[in-house]
Amino acid sequence: MTGLTDTQQLNPTNDSGASHQSVRVVLDVMGGDNAPQVVLAGARQVLQSSNADDTSINLILVGEAEAIAPLKEEFPQRVEAVPSTEVIEMNEHPAHAVRQKKDSSIVVGCNLIKEGKGDAFFSAGSTGGAMTAATLIIGRVRGVKRPAIATVIPAPKGLVVMLDAGANTDVEAEYILQFAAMGEIYAHEVLGVEKPRVGLLNVGEEGTKGSMLAQEAYTLLKENIKGFTGNAEGSDIFAGNFDVIATDGFTGNIVLKTMEGLVGGLFSEIKSIFYSSTKNKLAAAVIKKDLSALKDQLSAELIGGAPLLGLQAPVIIGHGSSSATAIANGIRASATATRQQIPQLIAAAITT
Fold first, then answer.
1. C-alpha–C-alpha distance, residues 237 and 302, integer Å
2. Is the Cβ–Cβ distance between 39 and 29 less than 8 Å?
3. Which residues contact 323 (CB under 8 A, 6 or more apart)?
4. What angle in degrees, to the nearest 10, is found between the helix axes of 173-189 and 342-351?
5. What is the pLDDT of residues 162-198, one digit of tens each?
C-alpha cells in the first residue's frame, strides 16, 4: 500500500464531465435534532439550486410517509419517497438498535445502497447507528481493517482532514496506516489538494517520540505513504502544516471536541467583550464584517458532514444539530464522493 499513485492523481476540478454526473443520494429524513423539518429544508436548498452540480443530484427520501410526501410532490422528477416507520434515537445502543429496528430510516437507507438503488447515504442522526448499519449492511472495502470517520477541519489556512475522529478507540499501527491512505485520497479527490501533506498526530516531531503504537505507526507511514511528512503536533492543526492528520479514534475525537468547544467559547467571549461598553460596540461595528467572515470560514456548516471512509459506498455523517445549510452541504459532499469514486480509489490504494 503506497497511498496515491501517479495514475490516481486526478483533478477534481477538471472538465471531464464527471462533476455533473447524476447521483442518487439516499437521505435519512428522520436524522438530527430538528428532523424532519430541517433535513427537508436542506434537501429543498439542493433541489431549488440552479448550480449544475446540484441539478444532477436526485434524492431518495427515507422517513415518515407524511413528512416526505410534500417534497416528492413538489419535485416528482428528482425525488423518490421511501417510507419508514422507526427511528434510531441518539441514546440507543447502536448494534442493538440496528438489529431490532429493521424499518428505521437508517437501516432502510443503508439497505437501499446495498441493493444498488442509491449511490451514497447521508444521515445527521445517530452516529453510532449510522456507523453500525453502514458497516454491517453496506460493508467494508476489501482489505480495509476498520472504517474511519474523517472530519474536515475548517482551519484558517485551509481544510485539514483528520481521521479517525471516533469510530475506532482501540487501534493497531496498520489501522492508522490505512487511515492515512484513505485521508490522503479524500483530501486530493474531494477537497482538491494537489499533493496532500500527511502527518501522524504525536507529542513531538521526532520519529522516536510518543507511545510504542505511535512509533510503529510512524515507521509504517514513512515506508508506505507517498505524502507523509512526519509527526504533527496539536499546534500544527490550525497552522496549516498538514493537509491530512492520522490518529486513533480516541485521540481524534477528543481533539475534535476540544476544538469545537474552543472555537464556540472564543466567539462567545469576543461577543461579550464587544457588547460590554459603548466604546467596544463602536469597535465591533468597524470589524464586524471581518469577524463574520472568520466565523464563516471556521464553520463546520460549509463541510456538511464527516465521511465514513473504507465502505463500499460513500456515507456521510452530519452533526445532530445541523442546520438546513449544513444538510444541503452534506448532500453535496455525498454526491462529490460518489463522482470522484472514493470507495474505488480506496480499494485500489489498500490492495496495492
1. 18
2. yes
3. 38, 42, 301
4. 140
5. 999 999 999 999 999 999 999 999 999 888 999 999 9
Count CA atoms within 13 Å of residue 142 on its CB side: 4
Question: Taking a C-beta distance cutoff of 8 angstroms, is the pair 130, 90 a contact?
Answer: no
Tens of pLDDT, residues 16-31: 445 578 999 999 999 9
pLDDT band at 352 (very low <50, low <70, confident <90, very high): low
Q: How far apart are CA 28 and CA 125, in angstroms?
A: 8
Cβ proximity of 79 and 71 under 8 Å: yes
Continuous H helices in 190-228 = 212-224
- Of 139, 147, 337, which Cα lies nearest the Cα of 249? 147
The Cα–Cα gap between 82 and 60 comes to 7
At a CB cut-off of 8 Å and minimum separation 6, what does 345 contact? Answer: 8, 185, 189
Which of the four pLDDT bands, split at 50, 70 and 90, describes residue 10?
Answer: very low
Q: For residue 19, how many other CB atoms are within 10 A of its CB? A: 16
Strand partners, 86: 104
Q: What backbone torsions phi and psi does residue 315 show, to the nearest 5 degrees?
A: -130, 125
Give long-range contacts, CB 8 A cutoff, 24+ apart: 89-97. Answer: 89/126, 90/125, 90/126, 90/320, 92/126, 92/129, 93/128, 94/126, 94/128, 94/129, 94/131, 94/132, 95/132, 97/126, 97/129, 97/132
Each residue's pLDDT tens digit, 220-230: 999 999 999 99
Please choose, from the candidates 192, 150, 148, the residue with its C-alpha nearest in 3D space to the C-alpha of residue 174: 148
